[in-house]
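hey m, so remember when u said the tokens were messed up on ur end? i reran from scratch. heres the input so u can diff it against urs
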Amino acid sequence: MRSKIQLPLQTVSLVVSFMCWVLISSLIPYIKEDIALTSGQLAWVSAISVILGSILRIPIGYYANRFGARILFMISFLALLLPIWYLSLSNSFVDLMISGLFLGIGGAAFSIGVTSLPKYYPKEKHGTINGIYGIGNAGTAFSTFGAPILAQALGWRTAVYWYLALVALFALLNFVFGDKQEIRVKNSLSEQIKAVYRNQKLWFLSIFYFITFGSFVAFTIYLPNFLVDHFELSKVDAGIRTAGFIVLATIFRPIGGIVSDKINPFLVLMFVFGGLTLSGVLLSFTLSMPLFTVGCLAVAVCAGTGNGAVFKLVPMYFSKQGGIVNGIVSAAGGIGGFFPPLMLTSLYGMTGQYSIGFMALSEAALASLILVFWMSFQAKMQLSADILESTADAVMVTDPQGIIMTVNHAFTKITGYTNEDVVGRTPAVLSSGHHDRAFYESFWSTLLTTGHWQGEIMNKRADGSIFREWLTASAVKDDQDRVKNYVAIFSDLSKLKER
């Protein structure tokens, strides 16, 4: 029974964690009325929670595997009580930086669910489950929308106290309803890191999440203050519009996971990064509010969809190191949300406009699109290699001149020749001497004319023994009807007759 409530419990726990994570940025239009802050300080205060929230995602992903979600969520909520309380007492830039840094614990909690929840479901549902869990992003919308309303009615310091009660409640709920029997994985942290850090797929996935989740976090943090200063909106109106951005991105996160379960996730990511590229170009122009809104909503759709798709790929490639990989990829996403607000502020101070920053988003998305195409190509090549190795018949592939390019494991098992022994040589290495020149001339004449030859042939193993094989040779042609390769597939007839 407890296992059935883990998805809703952990998802709602993430909602509350993310509410705390963006608490300062949600209240910043009110805080800056009490505490004098420069534009640079505003950017740092708004973004500081992302630092610890990103760094902690790596160890939290690992320890969520080791101790379970129940313990990790409880510790996270209890740890959040102190920075929330300290925020209510803040009177300076330094106070805000200290409380904001430790509010990052709320963002780090994301690694708990993406590590824990896949244990309860089969692989074909991991994209959907992680997408549903990602609805926890809505916590940022609740804070962005609700915190200004509370601050308007009660004052921002009093509004903060409501968060103390909410966090304490969810620490208790996880203690009572968390799964005490969750499967634990106790692999060494250093061993898991060593097993994955050289894998380029880890860093590609980290780049993808850096862009998708990073753009979501950056817009979430930066939009409230940006809309007030740039478009002169009221604080509540800016909060509502930012909440709309967050809600749209949150809705599309599970959609991205569900679609990635149904079709090739690489196709989903191609749509995502193509959309982000165009959105960044649009936002780089000086826009009216309607066009700016279109650009932002397009970013929300693409970022949300991408967030769901990335975490479909993680368990596909790293089923045995899910905890540490989830942590590293999640950390990259958090870091992706830290730099853009600071960069936009700096560029605005130097140039008086934000266009260069939005164009940087476009260029980063375009680079990611190219990487997606490359990973998709590699996946297809790997599939072909896996098929080649898994077949029970021997396979030999040559170039158009008949030079051997590769052979499979079954070839080695039948002939005794390894891939290294025969690559760069011709099939004559197998010649047994049992066939005359006329036989081979007929073989090549038929293959060149029809593109196909099939029959019995006597060949020689590496140890000199002769064996009879049933051979099928075919020509592989390109779109111009030119031969690209020859493929020979054969089985050992002597072994078959013994059976």
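this time it looks ok to me. The mean pLDDT is 85. if urs says something different then somethings off w ur setup not the seq
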